[in-house]
């Protein structure tokens, strides 16, 4: 059985429910993990997702900001909570699907100044990473677990449009890259999109709204990730290579999110 997992910072699920439906028709994800849904649980457009064929929902909402959700074609079960947000924001939700524990995160962006002492938002971001890494390091790397979402760090030199410039900008500073590396090392996570498109190929999942033509400027960042434990290595590589991609065509749709969906396939 193929299980296609998708992560997408949708930037308002109510505004883009029709785009979500189009994406589901075209790409048939089995598990759709959304970030920045920007609504409370009772405001989530559940009926639209039932019509899409994703009737099984786990939603962690918040008025006007943040918010994450998992919509699944297959039944879902509860997963252990990984509430590592010190501010109590709706930034994480987890579920078990087909025996796989999936945790969907919207990690804080971190503001504009990469200084923990001067910028509480940046401190919150690094604190989130530290708490999550500590929690995951207690887990069994052989267990089937996926961490997905808008993790708000572009970890590699080829995950940003200009490495030298972006090394001074929040999302790609050395301390953030180190925090992401520590998270990956906590359970020896496999970065499936990078396995599918190895460096030095550039790969982005976010482009600023400021560019009139995001493809022409192509000043992107890879902020959206699908990480799996070694317990899912065989499922990820059963066909010989990782099947994962950024759907940058969605970024070109009318009134898009500034993030593109990212999918990865597992063969169970």
What does this structure look like?
- 46% of the residues are buried.
- This protein is α+β, with helices and mostly antiparallel strands.
- The chain contains 8 helices and 14 strands.
- The chain is globular and about 45 Å long.
- The protein starts with a strand and ends with a strand.
- Strand 3 (56-60) and strand 4 form a beta hairpin.
- A 6-stranded mixed beta sheet has the order 3-4-2-1-14-13. The chain has a 6-stranded mixed beta sheet with strand order 5-6-7-8-12-9. The chain has a two-stranded antiparallel sheet with strand order 10-11.
- The mean pLDDT is 97.
- It has a single domain (2-267), classed as Deoxyribonuclease I, Chain A, CATH 3.60.10.
Secondary structure elements and their pairing?
Layout: E1 2-9, H1 17-27, E2 31-35, H2 46-52, E3 56-60, E4 68-72, E5 76-77, E6 92-97, E7 100-106, H3 120-136, E8 145-150, H4 163-166, H5 174-186, E9 190-191, H6 192-196, E10 206-207, H7 214-217, E11 220-221, E12 224-228, H8 233-236, E13 243-246, E14 262-267
Helix pairs in contact: 1-2, 3-5
Helix percentage range: 10-25%
Mean pLDDT: 97
- CATH architecture classification: 4-Layer Sandwich
**Unreliable segments (pLDDT under 50, ≥5 consecutive)?**
none
Number of alpha- plus pi-helical segments: 8
CATH class membership: Alpha Beta
Shape: globular
Q: Summarize the helix and strand pattern as letters.
A: EHEHEEEEEHEHHEHEHEEHEE
Task: Give the termini distance in whole angstroms.
Answer: 5 Å
Q: What's the number of structural domains?
A: 1
Strands side by side in the biggest sheet: 3-4-2-1-14-13
So, the CATH homologous superfamily?
Endonuclease/exonuclease/phosphatase
Quote the CATH topology. Answer: Deoxyribonuclease I, Chain A
Structural class: alpha+beta
Q: Count the strands?
A: 14
Beta fraction of the residues?
A: 15-25%
Radius of gyration: 17 Å
What composes the largest sheet?
Answer: 6 strands, mixed
């Amino acid at each position: 059985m193929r299980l296609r997992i998708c992560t997408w910072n949708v930037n308002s699920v109510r505004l883009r429910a029709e785009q979500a439906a189009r994406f589901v028709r075209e790409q048939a994800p089995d598990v759709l993990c959304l970030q920045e849904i920007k609504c409370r649980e009772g405001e989530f457009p559940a009926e639209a997702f039932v019509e899409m064929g994703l009737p099984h929902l786990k939603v962690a909402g918040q008025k006007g900001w943040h918010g994450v959700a998992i919509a699944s074609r297959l039944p879902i079960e509860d997963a252990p909570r990984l509430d590592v947000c010190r501010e109590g924001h709706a930034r994480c939700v987890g579920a078990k699907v087909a025996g796989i524990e999936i945790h969907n995160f919207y990690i804080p962006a971190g503001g504009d100044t990469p200084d923990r002492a001067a910028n509480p938002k940046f401190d919150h971001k690094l604190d989130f990473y530290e708490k999550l890494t500590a929690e995951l390091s207690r887990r069994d790397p052989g267990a089937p677990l996926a961490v997905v979402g808008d993790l708000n760090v572009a970890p590699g030199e080829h995950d940003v449009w200009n490495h030298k410039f972006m090394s001074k900008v929040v999302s790609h500073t050395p301390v953030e890259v180190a925090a992401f590396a520590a998270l990956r090392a906590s359970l020896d996570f496999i970065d499936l999109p990078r396995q599918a498109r190895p460096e030095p190929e550039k790969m982005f999942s976010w482009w600023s709204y400021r560019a009139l033509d995001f493809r022409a400027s192509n000043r992107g960042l890879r902020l959206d990730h699908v990480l799996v434990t070694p317990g899912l290595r065989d499922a990820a590589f059963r066909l010989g290579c990782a099947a994962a991609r950024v759907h940058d065509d969605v970024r070109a749709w009318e009134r898009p999110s500034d993030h593109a969906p990212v999918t990865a396939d597992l063969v169970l």
